[in-house]
């Protein structure tokens, strides 16, 4: 698929999210704004864009004149100023319209130096940063001199910026950057205090609300909890959560555990992006609790929504060091904490399996309840979606 089509597809998905932004860029990156405006719906994403070229415009944005425009520090300062502006716009909107939703917002700052009509002795580079309620992310790239003309360097800088926007909207599937062998994009995430506390073990949970606000989760109460890696989230996840909530009568909460009993750990930068997918949909809890026995401590009284493959592992002594007594003790703890499981069928190896296909011990039968196939069935998977994106990129 041509780059133009890949960009349009990405921008369309960005505009479909509730995230809104203030963008400030200097030196290059105007193509990113043109791409965002080139697809209908940009007013749902872009609050304002500031093109910094004259020194006084940088002074107006930051309140001072930096010694050097193109640095990660300046990009972060630009992003912070843009974020302050975005939050003020959001406050003004809510004051003028009492029913206006409190949408998630972010600020983006980008400073670049690229090829021009005179020779430059220094590097050609871009430093782009984003700030939101989850912290700040910096993207830095030094371009290989002579590998592209000015238009090519402008396009690359704009792709870095557009990728940062997509990340901040929780949108996956951005095309890979067309880098040379000597180029590498450096990404640095500085999480907010609550998110960092989970990663260091200082706190058990941080909750990202539908409006992007981050809280400590102290007021959650019992929930319909769907845990996963969400790489990416898809209609199957959302439909399953809705069907389970109808059955349980409890509001939905998604959980993104940084540690997973069956998969590789999730680094914080990726966790940020995955959590941002749920804006406008449901809150998502970031934890380090891979086991259901641990989750019960965080979410007492909750209903855990699982696929039949996960339920099978919960009931398999092999996942308890081969000790059946450990398995029964873990399930007893789930019951003591007022939790239980809702189990959805799943297609695997050409067969659709349900809870009825599992050998549930009679003493724990009351912990497991099936979600009927007529209430929910969706055979799509995150792996299939990622494969489709890879095919698109390869055909470009």
In words, what does this structure look like?
The chain has 396 residues and is of the alpha/beta class. It has helices at residues 3-15, 30-37, 55-62, 72-96, 150-168, 193-200, 235-248, 268-275, 292-298, 308-314, 324-336, 382-394; strands at residues 20-26, 46-52, 105-113, 124-132, 135-143, 186-191, 205-208, 214-215, 224-227, 252-257, 284-287, 303-307, 340-344, 346-348, 351-353, 368-371. The strands form 3 sheets. It has an 8-stranded mixed β-sheet with strand order 8-7-11-10-9-12-13-16. Strands 2-1-3-4-5-6 form a 6-stranded mixed β-sheet.
Q: How far do the termini sit from each other?
A: 4 Å
What characteristic shape results from the CA principal axes? elongated
Q: Write down how many β-strands occur, each being a DSSP E stretch of 2 or more residues.
A: 16
How much of the polypeptide forms β-strand, as a percent range? Answer: 15-25%
């Amino acid at each position: 698929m041509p780059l133009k089509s890949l960009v349009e597809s990405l921008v369309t998905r960005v505009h479909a999210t509730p995230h809104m932004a203030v963008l400030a860029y200097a030196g290059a990156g105007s193509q990113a704004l043109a791409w965002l405006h080139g697809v209908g719906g940009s007013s749902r994403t872009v609050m304002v864009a500031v093109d910094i070229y004259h020194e006084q415009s940088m002074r107006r944005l930051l309140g001072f004149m930096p010694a050097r425009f193109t640095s990660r520090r300046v990009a972060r300062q630009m992003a912070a100023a843009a974020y302050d502006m975005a939050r003020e716009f959001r406050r003004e909107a809510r004051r003028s319209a009492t029913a206006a939703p409190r949408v998630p917002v972010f600020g983006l700052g980008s400073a670049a130096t690229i090829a021009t009509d005179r020779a430059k002795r220094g590097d050609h580079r871009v430093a782009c940063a984003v700030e939101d309620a989850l912290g700040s992310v910096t993207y830095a790239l030094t371009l290989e001199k002579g590998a592209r003309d000015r238009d090519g360097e402008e396009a690359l800088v704009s792709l870095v910026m557009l990728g940062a926007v997509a990340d901040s909207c929780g949108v996956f599937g951005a095309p890979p950057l067309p880098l040379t062998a000597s180029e590498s994009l450096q990404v640095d995430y500085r999480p907010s205090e609550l998110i960092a506390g989970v990663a260091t073990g200082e706190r058990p949970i941080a909750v990202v609300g539908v409006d992007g606000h981050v809280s400590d989760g102290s007021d959650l109460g019992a929930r319909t909890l769907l845990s996963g890696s969400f790489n990416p989230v898809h209609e199957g996840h959302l439909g399953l959560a809705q069907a389970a909530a109808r059955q349980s009568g409890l509001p939905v909460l998604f959980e993104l555990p940084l540690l997973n009993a069956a998969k590789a750990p999730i680094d914080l930068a990726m966790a940020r992006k995955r959590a941002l997918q749920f804006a406008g949909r449901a809150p998502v809890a970031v934890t380090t609790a891979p086991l259901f026995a641990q989750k019960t401590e965080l979410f007492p009284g909750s209903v855990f929504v699982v696929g039949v493959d996960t339920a099978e592992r919960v009931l398999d002594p092999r996942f308890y060091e081969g000790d059946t007594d450990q398995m029964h003790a873990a399930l007893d703890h789930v019951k003591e904490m007022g939790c239980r499981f809702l189990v959805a069928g799943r297609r695997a190896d050409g067969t659709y399996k349900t809870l009825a296909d599992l050998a549930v011990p009679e003493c724990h039968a009351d912990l497991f309840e099936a979600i009927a196939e007529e209430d929910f069935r969706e055979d799509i998977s995150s792996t299939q979606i990622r494969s489709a994106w890879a095919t698109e990129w390869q055909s470009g």
